[in-house]
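Table S2 (text version). Query chain:
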Amino acid sequence: MVTTVELEALAKQYRRGLFEKFLAVRQGHPGSTFSMIEIVVALYHGGFVRFDSEQKTFRDRVLISKGHATVALYPILARFGVLPQSEWDAWGKSPSALRVFGNKSIPGIDVTSGSLGHGIGVGAGMAMAYKRSGSDKRVFVVISEGELYEGSTWEALLFAAHYALSNLTVVIDINSLIILGRTEDCLSLNPIQDKIAGLGLEIRQCDGHDFASLLSALSSQTGGTRPLIVLANTVKGKGCSIMEHKASWHYWNPMTVEQIEQCRRELA
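Corresponding structure-token output:
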């Protein structure tokens, strides 16, 4: 069993590696990526996504609906050996299969995403197929709270609730920011929990950067009969103070030498 201390060390390692990749490719979405690092580390290293070490494949599916943050999976997939280490090492230096937005041509990426609002629908379809075929596979979908602006998200939640897709877990990365600014200022979503609870779904709230809190929330589906929705409260740009809580860091920004070194110190 991996300890929370080990999970924290992995999260730091992945953030450092991704920061250097953003520097190398000079593009990307660090704010959204860094807000969900602990979420994906908990899923893959916390025992929720089962791995077949002989086949080098995962039994369960992870869909990153906010496709601009799919890069958060690349170092994890390389660590498991699903993604060739050579592809990760080459990215930003020489031709590589990796892209700023994930797609199914990349080993270990289960869906081509980027157009927001579709992840839960795809995940619900997979979950229903697995359930009907008698498979014990589970589906995990990570969305941004900005995707709650999309009608397709609510249609998919209704579908998942109606068919009692207990093998589906949706993690909502709530960092309170979208490209245009604070969600409270753009179009208020709160109280998110009350809105979703009305659909008859299992809901848990957690600190999206605290592993004890995350693991507890994700574990609550065991033996359940309904889809699980995890509301993970996070910080956009987590780990780099110049990025934290700033909508402008949804995209990559030019950085001075001093800013780069500051981020490296903070991510050490």
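Notes on Table S2: The first strand starts at residue 51 and ends at 52. The mean pLDDT is 96.
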